[in-house]
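User: Hi! I have a protein structure encoded as tokens and I'd like to know what sequence might fold into it. I'm fairly new to this, so please keep things simple.
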């Protein structure tokens, strides 16, 4: 009798583990690649929620000449201190191909400071881990990112 109870309990635990494994996999697979207009400027915030109304990206990865954000973006008209929103894009996986002459900018005391790709991607990786609400603006022309900026 006790042995049957333990076998039933073990079977229930195995079923629960399988169910949890499949639900975690389906959540990750739910993020779809999003196509976006290949010319324009796109803004998001490195955060876990859309607190500023300009989109949010809780996950960022970089590899070679590509930067991938999982989150929401807003297409903006200008890339100045106060970007003017055009329209919001849906949640998904945004992959930007970096132009060979892409400029990388980080906030400075008075204006943006240009940095190397390596330094920028390192900063982006560090900042994205902390979700501190810094903004990111990606300016794209003909399908290639021309400027990627961190903005405070």
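Assistant: Happy to help. Inverse folding works backwards from shape to sequence: for each of the 152 positions I chose a residue that suits the local structure. Here it is:
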């Amino acid at each position: 009798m006790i042995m049957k109870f333990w076998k039933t309990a073990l079977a229930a635990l195995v079923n629960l583990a399988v169910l949890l494994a499949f639900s975690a996999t389906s959540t990750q697979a739910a993020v779809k690649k999003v196509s976006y207009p290949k010319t324009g400027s796109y803004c998001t915030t490195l955060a876990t929620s859309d607190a500023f109304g300009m989109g949010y990206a809780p996950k960022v990865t970089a590899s070679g000449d590509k930067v991938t954000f999982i989150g929401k973006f807003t297409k903006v008209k200008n890339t100045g201190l106060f970007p003017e929103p055009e329209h919001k894009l849906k949640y998904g996986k945004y992959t930007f191909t970096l132009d060979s002459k892409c400029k990388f900018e980080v906030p400075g005391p008075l204006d943006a400071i240009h940095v190397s790709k390596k330094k920028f991607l390192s900063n982006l990786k560090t900042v994205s881990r902390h979700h501190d609400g810094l903004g990111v603006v990606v300016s794209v022309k003909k399908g290639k990112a021309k400027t990627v900026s961190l903005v405070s």
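A useful reference point when you look it over: Residues 9-28 have pLDDT under 50 and may be disordered. Feel free to ask if any position seems puzzling.
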